Amino acid sequence: MTRDLEVFNRIAEKLIRAEKETGVVKQIPFESLKSTFDLDLPEDSTQEEAFEKALTELVLNTPRTSTKLFFNQLFGGRKSKASLGELLSVLLNNSMYTYKVGGPMIAIEKNILNKISDLVGFKSETLGTIASGGSMTNYMGMVMARDKYDPDFRYKGRQVNLVGYSSIESHYSIAKNAAFSGVGRDNIRYIQSDEHGKMNVKELESQIQQDLANGYRPFFVNATAGTTVMGAFDPLIKISEICKQYDLWMHVDGAYGASVIFSDKYKHLIEGAHLADSFTINAHKMLGTPITCSIILTPHKNCLYDSFSNEASYLYQSDDNDINPGKISLQCGRRNDALKFWTLWKSVGTKGLGDIVDQEFHLADVAREYVRSNPDYTLYSFDNSINICFNYKSVSPEKLCNKLYEAGKLVVGYGKFKDQTFVRLVTVNSNNTKEDLIHFFKVLEEFAETL
Q1: Could you give the angle at the alpha carbon of 87 between the alpha carbons of 85 and 88, nearest 5°?
Q2: Helix (H, G, I), strand (E, B) or coil at 332
Q3: Is the pTM of this model over 0.85?
Q4: What is the distance between the alpha carbons of residues 263 and 357, in angstroms, rounded to a whole number?
Q5: Which residues pair with 425 in a beta bridge?
Q6: Rounded alpha-carbon distances, angstroms, from residue 214 to 52, 402, 425
Q7: pLDDT digits over 96-123, tens only?
Q8: Where exactly are the structural domains of the chain?
Q9: CATH architecture of the domain with residue range 85-343
Q10: Strands 294-298 vs 127-131: parallel, antiparallel or unpaired
Q11: Calpha distance 67→382 (Å, rounded)
Protein backbone atom coordinates (compact mmCIF):
# COMPACT_ATOMS: atom_id res chain seq x y z
CA MET A 1 0.00 0.00 0.00
CA THR A 2 2.83 2.42 0.85
CA ARG A 3 4.41 1.83 -2.55
CA ASP A 4 1.10 2.34 -4.34
CA LEU A 5 0.51 5.61 -2.47
CA GLU A 6 3.87 6.78 -3.77
CA VAL A 7 2.67 5.97 -7.29
CA PHE A 8 -0.53 7.89 -6.58
CA ASN A 9 1.42 10.93 -5.42
CA ARG A 10 3.60 10.95 -8.53
CA ILE A 11 0.61 10.69 -10.86
CA ALA A 12 -1.40 13.27 -8.89
CA GLU A 13 1.47 15.76 -9.05
CA LYS A 14 1.70 15.33 -12.84
CA LEU A 15 -2.07 15.77 -13.20
CA ILE A 16 -2.19 18.96 -11.11
CA ARG A 17 0.78 20.38 -13.03
CA ALA A 18 -0.90 19.56 -16.36
CA GLU A 19 -4.15 21.20 -15.23
CA LYS A 20 -2.26 24.44 -14.60
CA GLU A 21 -0.02 24.35 -17.65
CA THR A 22 -2.25 23.00 -20.42
CA GLY A 23 -5.82 23.14 -19.07
CA VAL A 24 -8.23 20.74 -20.73
CA VAL A 25 -7.11 17.82 -22.88
CA LYS A 26 -7.46 17.50 -26.61
CA GLN A 27 -10.09 14.99 -27.65
CA ILE A 28 -8.86 11.53 -28.65
CA PRO A 29 -11.29 9.76 -31.01
CA PHE A 30 -12.78 6.73 -29.31
CA GLU A 31 -11.72 4.42 -32.11
CA SER A 32 -8.10 5.47 -31.53
CA LEU A 33 -7.99 4.68 -27.81
CA LYS A 34 -6.94 1.06 -28.16
CA SER A 35 -3.98 1.93 -30.34
CA THR A 36 -3.03 4.99 -28.25
CA PHE A 37 -3.02 3.46 -24.76
CA ASP A 38 -2.13 0.16 -23.16
CA LEU A 39 -5.68 -0.98 -22.35
CA ASP A 40 -5.36 -4.75 -22.62
CA LEU A 41 -5.90 -6.98 -19.59
CA PRO A 42 -3.07 -9.58 -19.70
CA GLU A 43 -2.97 -13.18 -18.53
CA ASP A 44 0.12 -12.54 -16.38
CA SER A 45 0.97 -9.67 -14.06
CA THR A 46 2.30 -6.35 -15.39
CA GLN A 47 5.70 -5.07 -14.36
CA GLU A 48 5.48 -2.12 -11.93
CA GLU A 49 7.18 0.33 -14.28
CA ALA A 50 4.91 -0.56 -17.20
CA PHE A 51 1.86 -0.46 -14.92
CA GLU A 52 2.66 3.07 -13.71
CA LYS A 53 3.38 4.27 -17.24
CA ALA A 54 0.05 2.93 -18.56
CA LEU A 55 -1.89 4.40 -15.64
CA THR A 56 -0.17 7.78 -15.93
CA GLU A 57 -0.95 8.07 -19.64
CA LEU A 58 -4.60 7.25 -19.03
CA VAL A 59 -4.97 9.78 -16.22
CA LEU A 60 -3.22 12.59 -18.08
CA ASN A 61 -5.46 12.11 -21.13
CA THR A 62 -8.80 11.87 -19.31
CA PRO A 63 -11.07 14.97 -19.46
CA ARG A 64 -10.05 17.37 -16.69
CA THR A 65 -13.04 18.76 -14.84
CA SER A 66 -10.99 20.72 -12.31
CA THR A 67 -9.18 23.06 -14.69
CA LYS A 68 -10.01 26.74 -15.11
CA LEU A 69 -11.15 26.02 -18.68
CA PHE A 70 -13.87 23.48 -17.89
CA PHE A 71 -17.37 25.01 -17.92
CA ASN A 72 -19.42 22.18 -19.39
CA GLN A 73 -21.23 20.30 -16.62
CA LEU A 74 -23.07 21.44 -13.50
CA PHE A 75 -19.96 20.59 -11.50
CA GLY A 76 -16.34 21.58 -11.71
CA GLY A 77 -13.26 22.50 -9.74
CA ARG A 78 -11.69 20.74 -6.80
CA LYS A 79 -11.86 21.41 -3.06
CA SER A 80 -8.78 19.85 -1.50
CA LYS A 81 -10.33 19.17 1.91
CA ALA A 82 -13.25 17.37 0.23
CA SER A 83 -10.80 15.36 -1.90
CA LEU A 84 -8.96 14.40 1.28
CA GLY A 85 -12.19 13.03 2.74
CA GLU A 86 -12.87 11.10 -0.46
CA LEU A 87 -9.44 9.48 -0.44
CA LEU A 88 -9.82 8.45 3.19
CA SER A 89 -13.27 6.98 2.59
CA VAL A 90 -11.78 4.83 -0.18
CA LEU A 91 -9.10 3.56 2.18
CA LEU A 92 -11.65 2.86 4.92
CA ASN A 93 -14.03 1.14 2.45
CA ASN A 94 -17.03 1.16 4.78
CA SER A 95 -20.54 0.39 3.67
CA MET A 96 -23.19 2.66 5.12
CA TYR A 97 -26.04 0.24 5.75
CA THR A 98 -25.35 -0.60 9.42
CA TYR A 99 -23.62 1.00 12.37
CA LYS A 100 -21.65 -2.24 12.79
CA VAL A 101 -19.69 -1.55 9.58
CA GLY A 102 -20.14 2.23 9.32
CA GLY A 103 -19.21 3.21 12.87
CA PRO A 104 -18.80 6.95 13.45
CA MET A 105 -19.36 7.61 9.75
CA ILE A 106 -23.06 6.96 10.41
CA ALA A 107 -23.05 9.82 12.93
CA ILE A 108 -21.28 12.10 10.43
CA GLU A 109 -23.96 11.39 7.84
CA LYS A 110 -26.80 11.97 10.30
CA ASN A 111 -25.24 15.26 11.39
CA ILE A 112 -25.02 16.47 7.78
CA LEU A 113 -28.66 15.56 7.17
CA ASN A 114 -29.83 17.29 10.35
CA LYS A 115 -27.88 20.47 9.60
CA ILE A 116 -29.29 20.67 6.07
CA SER A 117 -32.78 20.05 7.43
CA ASP A 118 -32.32 23.06 9.72
CA LEU A 119 -31.07 25.23 6.85
CA VAL A 120 -34.03 24.25 4.68
CA GLY A 121 -36.36 25.16 7.52
CA PHE A 122 -38.17 21.89 8.09
CA LYS A 123 -40.13 22.20 11.32
CA SER A 124 -40.99 18.57 12.01
CA GLU A 125 -38.53 15.74 12.58
CA THR A 126 -36.95 14.80 9.28
CA LEU A 127 -35.22 11.75 7.92
CA GLY A 128 -32.91 11.41 4.98
CA THR A 129 -30.13 9.54 3.26
CA ILE A 130 -27.31 10.05 0.76
CA ALA A 131 -27.50 8.39 -2.64
CA SER A 132 -25.43 8.24 -5.80
CA GLY A 133 -26.81 11.15 -7.76
CA GLY A 134 -29.84 13.38 -8.24
CA SER A 135 -31.56 10.90 -10.54
CA MET A 136 -31.69 8.41 -7.67
CA THR A 137 -32.88 10.90 -5.05
CA ASN A 138 -35.54 12.15 -7.46
CA TYR A 139 -36.61 8.55 -7.92
CA MET A 140 -36.87 8.06 -4.17
CA GLY A 141 -39.05 11.15 -3.90
CA MET A 142 -41.41 9.85 -6.57
CA VAL A 143 -41.62 6.40 -4.98
CA MET A 144 -42.48 7.87 -1.57
CA ALA A 145 -45.18 10.01 -3.19
CA ARG A 146 -46.57 6.95 -4.99
CA ASP A 147 -46.66 4.84 -1.84
CA LYS A 148 -48.20 7.57 0.28
CA TYR A 149 -50.99 8.00 -2.24
CA ASP A 150 -51.53 4.26 -2.70
CA PRO A 151 -49.99 2.15 0.11
CA ASP A 152 -50.88 -1.05 -1.75
CA PHE A 153 -48.91 -0.08 -4.85
CA ARG A 154 -45.64 -1.53 -3.55
CA TYR A 155 -47.31 -4.89 -2.90
CA LYS A 156 -49.87 -5.30 -5.68
CA GLY A 157 -48.53 -3.08 -8.41
CA ARG A 158 -50.42 -0.47 -10.33
CA GLN A 159 -54.14 -0.38 -9.64
CA VAL A 160 -55.03 3.17 -10.70
CA ASN A 161 -53.88 5.71 -13.27
CA LEU A 162 -51.48 7.88 -11.30
CA VAL A 163 -50.27 11.10 -12.94
CA GLY A 164 -47.41 13.40 -11.92
CA TYR A 165 -46.39 16.89 -12.95
CA SER A 166 -43.08 18.53 -13.75
CA SER A 167 -41.82 21.56 -15.61
CA ILE A 168 -40.86 21.14 -19.24
CA GLU A 169 -37.45 22.44 -18.10
CA SER A 170 -37.00 19.82 -15.35
CA HIS A 171 -34.32 17.14 -15.15
CA TYR A 172 -34.57 14.23 -17.58
CA SER A 173 -34.62 11.72 -14.72
CA ILE A 174 -38.29 12.45 -14.02
CA ALA A 175 -39.39 10.55 -17.12
CA LYS A 176 -37.04 7.66 -16.40
CA ASN A 177 -38.20 7.46 -12.81
CA ALA A 178 -41.82 7.32 -13.92
CA ALA A 179 -40.92 4.26 -15.98
CA PHE A 180 -38.97 2.62 -13.13
CA SER A 181 -41.66 3.26 -10.53
CA GLY A 182 -44.52 1.82 -12.58
CA VAL A 183 -46.22 5.19 -13.03
CA GLY A 184 -45.30 5.26 -16.72
CA ARG A 185 -43.56 7.89 -18.82
CA ASP A 186 -46.83 8.87 -20.50
CA ASN A 187 -48.33 9.74 -17.13
CA ILE A 188 -45.99 12.64 -16.48
CA ARG A 189 -47.53 15.96 -17.52
CA TYR A 190 -44.93 18.50 -18.58
CA ILE A 191 -45.95 22.03 -17.65
CA GLN A 192 -44.76 24.97 -19.73
CA SER A 193 -42.45 27.59 -18.26
CA ASP A 194 -42.36 31.37 -18.29
CA GLU A 195 -39.76 33.47 -20.10
CA HIS A 196 -37.16 32.68 -17.41
CA GLY A 197 -37.75 28.93 -17.30
CA LYS A 198 -39.94 28.83 -14.16
CA MET A 199 -42.94 26.51 -14.05
CA ASN A 200 -46.24 28.14 -15.07
CA VAL A 201 -48.37 27.63 -11.95
CA LYS A 202 -51.68 28.51 -13.60
CA GLU A 203 -51.11 25.87 -16.26
CA LEU A 204 -50.17 23.37 -13.54
CA GLU A 205 -53.51 23.81 -11.77
CA SER A 206 -55.43 23.74 -15.04
CA GLN A 207 -53.78 20.42 -15.99
CA ILE A 208 -54.55 18.92 -12.57
CA GLN A 209 -58.22 19.89 -12.91
CA GLN A 210 -58.34 18.43 -16.42
CA ASP A 211 -56.83 15.13 -15.25
CA LEU A 212 -59.25 14.85 -12.34
CA ALA A 213 -62.16 15.42 -14.71
CA ASN A 214 -60.83 12.62 -16.94
CA GLY A 215 -60.58 10.09 -14.12
CA TYR A 216 -56.84 10.25 -13.49
CA ARG A 217 -55.27 10.29 -10.01
CA PRO A 218 -52.81 13.16 -9.51
CA PHE A 219 -50.26 12.30 -6.81
CA PHE A 220 -46.96 14.15 -7.33
CA VAL A 221 -45.49 17.49 -8.40
CA ASN A 222 -41.78 17.89 -9.10
CA ALA A 223 -40.58 21.45 -8.53
CA THR A 224 -37.09 22.40 -9.67
CA ALA A 225 -34.64 24.61 -7.77
CA GLY A 226 -32.11 25.36 -10.48
CA THR A 227 -33.04 24.09 -13.95
CA THR A 228 -30.26 22.57 -16.00
CA VAL A 229 -30.36 25.01 -18.92
CA MET A 230 -31.46 28.40 -17.55
CA GLY A 231 -30.76 27.86 -13.85
CA ALA A 232 -34.32 28.89 -12.95
CA PHE A 233 -36.03 28.36 -9.59
CA ASP A 234 -39.69 27.31 -9.66
CA PRO A 235 -42.07 29.31 -7.40
CA LEU A 236 -42.19 26.87 -4.50
CA ILE A 237 -44.72 28.69 -2.32
CA LYS A 238 -47.32 28.89 -5.09
CA ILE A 239 -46.71 25.28 -6.10
CA SER A 240 -47.09 24.20 -2.46
CA GLU A 241 -50.46 25.94 -2.24
CA ILE A 242 -51.71 23.93 -5.19
CA CYS A 243 -50.27 20.71 -3.78
CA LYS A 244 -52.04 21.25 -0.48
CA GLN A 245 -55.31 22.09 -2.22
CA TYR A 246 -55.27 18.86 -4.23
CA ASP A 247 -53.41 16.72 -1.65
CA LEU A 248 -50.35 16.14 -3.83
CA TRP A 249 -46.79 15.36 -2.76
CA MET A 250 -44.38 18.22 -3.55
CA HIS A 251 -40.86 17.08 -4.35
CA VAL A 252 -38.19 19.77 -4.70
CA ASP A 253 -35.37 18.78 -7.02
CA GLY A 254 -32.65 21.06 -5.71
CA ALA A 255 -29.83 18.86 -6.97
CA TYR A 256 -28.31 21.81 -8.80
CA GLY A 257 -29.44 25.03 -7.12
CA ALA A 258 -30.43 24.16 -3.56
CA SER A 259 -26.94 24.97 -2.31
CA VAL A 260 -28.18 28.57 -2.09
CA ILE A 261 -29.48 27.58 1.37
CA PHE A 262 -25.92 28.26 2.59
CA SER A 263 -25.91 31.84 1.27
CA ASP A 264 -27.53 34.71 3.16
CA LYS A 265 -27.58 36.68 -0.09
CA TYR A 266 -29.20 34.09 -2.35
CA LYS A 267 -31.24 31.75 -0.13
CA HIS A 268 -34.36 33.75 -1.03
CA LEU A 269 -34.27 31.95 -4.40
CA ILE A 270 -35.45 28.79 -2.67
CA GLU A 271 -38.08 30.40 -0.45
CA GLY A 272 -40.75 27.84 0.38
CA ALA A 273 -38.42 24.83 0.41
CA HIS A 274 -39.57 24.06 3.96
CA LEU A 275 -43.01 23.28 2.52
CA ALA A 276 -41.67 20.32 0.52
CA ASP A 277 -42.60 16.70 1.18
CA SER A 278 -39.19 15.66 -0.11
CA PHE A 279 -36.14 17.74 -0.91
CA THR A 280 -32.85 17.01 -2.68
CA ILE A 281 -29.49 18.75 -2.84
CA ASN A 282 -26.23 17.66 -4.49
CA ALA A 283 -23.07 18.65 -2.63
CA HIS A 284 -21.06 17.61 -5.70
CA LYS A 285 -22.40 20.47 -7.82
CA MET A 286 -22.24 24.04 -6.50
CA LEU A 287 -20.25 23.07 -3.39
CA GLY A 288 -17.41 21.30 -5.21
CA THR A 289 -17.53 18.00 -3.32
CA PRO A 290 -16.24 15.06 -5.43
CA ILE A 291 -18.90 13.12 -7.32
CA THR A 292 -21.25 11.82 -6.00
CA CYS A 293 -22.96 13.21 -2.92
CA SER A 294 -26.70 13.52 -3.41
CA ILE A 295 -28.94 14.07 -0.39
CA ILE A 296 -32.68 13.52 0.06
CA LEU A 297 -34.71 14.64 3.07
CA THR A 298 -38.36 14.26 4.01
CA PRO A 299 -40.37 15.52 6.99
CA HIS A 300 -42.49 12.35 6.67
CA LYS A 301 -40.18 10.06 8.59
CA ASN A 302 -42.23 6.91 8.10
CA CYS A 303 -42.36 7.31 4.32
CA LEU A 304 -38.70 6.41 3.85
CA TYR A 305 -39.22 3.27 5.94
CA ASP A 306 -42.49 2.36 4.23
CA SER A 307 -41.03 2.63 0.73
CA PHE A 308 -37.48 1.34 1.19
CA SER A 309 -37.15 -0.87 4.25
CA ASN A 310 -37.02 -4.62 3.98
CA GLU A 311 -36.01 -7.13 6.61
CA ALA A 312 -32.75 -9.03 6.12
CA SER A 313 -31.79 -11.16 9.11
CA TYR A 314 -28.30 -11.81 7.71
CA LEU A 315 -27.63 -8.06 7.64
CA TYR A 316 -29.47 -6.24 10.43
CA GLN A 317 -28.30 -8.18 13.46
CA SER A 318 -27.67 -5.42 15.99
CA ASP A 319 -28.59 -1.84 16.88
CA ASP A 320 -31.86 -0.05 16.18
CA ASN A 321 -33.20 1.33 12.92
CA ASP A 322 -32.05 4.90 13.55
CA ILE A 323 -28.39 3.91 13.22
CA ASN A 324 -28.87 1.25 10.54
CA PRO A 325 -29.52 3.53 7.52
CA GLY A 326 -29.74 0.61 5.12
CA LYS A 327 -33.37 0.44 6.26
CA ILE A 328 -34.15 3.71 4.46
CA SER A 329 -31.91 3.38 1.42
CA LEU A 330 -32.65 2.23 -2.09
CA GLN A 331 -29.23 0.57 -2.11
CA CYS A 332 -27.83 -2.18 0.08
CA GLY A 333 -24.09 -1.73 -0.33
CA ARG A 334 -23.58 2.02 -0.17
CA ARG A 335 -20.25 3.83 -0.17
CA ASN A 336 -19.41 6.49 2.37
CA ASP A 337 -20.22 9.71 0.54
CA ALA A 338 -20.66 11.64 3.78
CA LEU A 339 -17.02 11.96 4.84
CA LYS A 340 -15.88 14.09 1.90
CA PHE A 341 -18.70 16.58 2.46
CA TRP A 342 -18.03 16.57 6.19
CA THR A 343 -14.31 17.30 5.72
CA LEU A 344 -15.15 20.25 3.45
CA TRP A 345 -17.88 21.60 5.74
CA LYS A 346 -15.76 21.05 8.86
CA SER A 347 -12.80 22.90 7.34
CA VAL A 348 -14.60 26.01 6.01
CA GLY A 349 -17.72 26.13 8.19
CA THR A 350 -21.27 26.96 7.12
CA LYS A 351 -20.20 30.51 6.30
CA GLY A 352 -17.42 29.16 4.11
CA LEU A 353 -19.92 27.12 2.10
CA GLY A 354 -21.94 30.31 1.70
CA ASP A 355 -18.83 32.06 0.41
CA ILE A 356 -18.43 29.33 -2.22
CA VAL A 357 -21.99 29.93 -3.43
CA ASP A 358 -21.58 33.72 -3.40
CA GLN A 359 -18.38 33.48 -5.43
CA GLU A 360 -20.15 31.45 -8.12
CA PHE A 361 -22.90 34.07 -8.41
CA HIS A 362 -20.26 36.80 -8.54
CA LEU A 363 -18.53 35.00 -11.43
CA ALA A 364 -21.90 34.73 -13.18
CA ASP A 365 -22.39 38.48 -12.79
CA VAL A 366 -18.95 39.06 -14.30
CA ALA A 367 -19.78 36.86 -17.28
CA ARG A 368 -23.21 38.42 -17.84
CA GLU A 369 -21.78 41.93 -17.70
CA TYR A 370 -19.12 40.99 -20.24
CA VAL A 371 -21.77 39.64 -22.62
CA ARG A 372 -24.13 42.58 -22.11
CA SER A 373 -21.42 45.13 -22.77
CA ASN A 374 -20.17 43.51 -25.98
CA PRO A 375 -22.24 44.04 -29.16
CA ASP A 376 -20.88 40.83 -30.68
CA TYR A 377 -22.82 38.80 -28.09
CA THR A 378 -26.50 38.04 -27.58
CA LEU A 379 -27.61 37.25 -24.02
CA TYR A 380 -30.52 34.88 -23.36
CA SER A 381 -30.33 34.35 -19.59
CA PHE A 382 -31.13 36.53 -16.59
CA ASP A 383 -29.80 37.69 -13.23
CA ASN A 384 -29.68 35.46 -10.12
CA SER A 385 -28.57 32.42 -12.11
CA ILE A 386 -25.13 30.86 -12.48
CA ASN A 387 -26.03 29.75 -16.02
CA ILE A 388 -25.00 32.30 -18.62
CA CYS A 389 -26.59 31.58 -22.00
CA PHE A 390 -25.33 33.50 -25.03
CA ASN A 391 -24.31 33.41 -28.68
CA TYR A 392 -21.27 35.01 -30.27
CA LYS A 393 -21.76 36.79 -33.59
CA SER A 394 -23.42 34.39 -36.02
CA VAL A 395 -21.32 31.37 -35.09
CA SER A 396 -23.29 28.15 -34.59
CA PRO A 397 -23.23 27.32 -30.86
CA GLU A 398 -23.17 23.57 -31.55
CA LYS A 399 -20.23 23.90 -33.90
CA LEU A 400 -18.38 26.33 -31.64
CA CYS A 401 -18.69 24.17 -28.50
CA ASN A 402 -17.84 20.91 -30.26
CA LYS A 403 -14.81 22.33 -32.06
CA LEU A 404 -13.48 23.98 -28.89
CA TYR A 405 -13.69 20.58 -27.17
CA GLU A 406 -12.08 18.67 -30.03
CA ALA A 407 -9.19 21.14 -30.23
CA GLY A 408 -8.58 21.02 -26.48
CA LYS A 409 -9.05 24.78 -26.05
CA LEU A 410 -11.81 24.74 -23.44
CA VAL A 411 -14.91 22.71 -22.59
CA VAL A 412 -18.32 24.40 -22.60
CA GLY A 413 -21.71 23.07 -23.67
CA TYR A 414 -24.76 24.39 -25.46
CA GLY A 415 -28.41 24.32 -24.49
CA LYS A 416 -31.87 24.97 -25.86
CA PHE A 417 -34.73 27.03 -24.48
CA LYS A 418 -37.95 27.95 -26.29
CA ASP A 419 -36.57 27.00 -29.71
CA GLN A 420 -33.35 29.01 -29.22
CA THR A 421 -29.96 27.27 -29.11
CA PHE A 422 -27.03 28.96 -27.39
CA VAL A 423 -23.75 28.44 -25.57
CA ARG A 424 -24.40 27.59 -21.90
CA LEU A 425 -21.61 28.70 -19.57
CA VAL A 426 -21.91 27.55 -15.94
CA THR A 427 -19.86 29.17 -13.18
CA VAL A 428 -19.87 26.32 -10.66
CA ASN A 429 -16.11 26.36 -10.13
CA SER A 430 -15.65 28.80 -7.24
CA ASN A 431 -11.86 28.49 -7.60
CA ASN A 432 -12.09 30.67 -10.70
CA THR A 433 -11.55 34.42 -10.64
CA LYS A 434 -12.81 37.36 -12.68
CA GLU A 435 -9.63 37.09 -14.77
CA ASP A 436 -10.37 33.42 -15.50
CA LEU A 437 -13.81 34.33 -16.84
CA ILE A 438 -12.42 37.08 -19.04
CA HIS A 439 -9.81 34.61 -20.31
CA PHE A 440 -12.62 32.17 -21.17
CA PHE A 441 -14.25 34.73 -23.44
CA LYS A 442 -10.96 35.72 -25.07
CA VAL A 443 -10.17 32.08 -25.88
CA LEU A 444 -13.69 31.60 -27.27
CA GLU A 445 -13.53 34.75 -29.40
CA GLU A 446 -10.11 33.96 -30.86
CA PHE A 447 -11.13 30.42 -31.71
CA ALA A 448 -14.50 31.50 -33.14
CA GLU A 449 -12.70 33.61 -35.74
CA THR A 450 -11.08 30.45 -37.13
CA LEU A 451 -14.53 29.05 -37.84
Answers
A1: 65
A2: coil
A3: yes
A4: 6
A5: 388
A6: 64, 46, 42
A7: 999 999 999 999 999 999 999 999 999 8
A8: 2-64, 85-343
A9: 3-Layer(aba) Sandwich (3.40)
A10: antiparallel
A11: 26
